[in-house]
Amino acid sequence: MSPPNPHQPPIRNCHVNLPHKLPALPDLFLTALSVCFLFSSSSSAAAAGSRPLFSRTPIITFPFCPRRFLKFSTMSLRRTHFANPQSLSEWLKPRLPSDSFASWGVKPGTKNVHNLWLELSEGETSLADSSPPVRTVHVVTVRILDKDNRVLIESHQELSDGSVRSRERPLSEKMKPSEDLESAVVRAVAEELGSIISGSGNVPGVKIVPGSYRRKVEERNSVSYPGLPARYELHSVEAVVDGLPDGEFCTVEEEEYGDCENSRVADEAVSVKKHFWRWVSADSVKP
């Protein structure tokens, strides 16, 4: 919230003195006629507004909580249009460049329509009904620091189709619907670093640095889904994680979609098998 303007005059309560006497009968009659005229004007405007929806300028209101809005939008689209990956594919084809959509899951480092359908069904992603659609994702980014104030970055990933995807960024993970920041941080560390810390996925040594939270929005074309614009809401924190090696290392993600109820769809999706990590100076990583 912006600080108050010292030159702005203070806001005071305004009191209106009501008349001691009621208005005369003619005045009441004229007031009643004015009210009737207003109601009749509103009715005429409503009748004129019965034209097709797109002939009028839509008014969009935004709720106070964006996460609730995103969850509602995602669930609505999924139930209405996306009963399965095939229906999602049919919805996307006329809205995306054909050559871009054809590269999904074929071009090295990309994902396929099964991945996007799983993101929608899990509530991790929402799509705007536009041409092209805009994919909105809430992402938690964890800048893991060591004793020398270095930052851990993921240099690249090895995918299930054998391709390699460059990353060069701190640990990041899509947030689940209604997931709070701390839970998202712990889950992200457990899923991507748990194999080298404890081998069991339990990560008790995650300490978030107080006051390190930052939020920013980035809009760019998606690398995973070429031709699909993306809007990333990035929730970033700094953290200290116990038990990590000092040099370069690799972690294994056993089942990226292991807890997914749609196992057949998950089998067709491109998943991450290995993560490759290294430490870099904090100055070389954008905040």
TrEMBL record:
Residue ranges of region Disordered? Answer: 158-178
**Hydrolase among the record's keywords?**
yes
Give the GO molecular function terms.
Answer: hydrolase activity
Keywords (alphabetical) are: Hydrolase
Output this protein's name.
NUDIX hydrolase domain-like
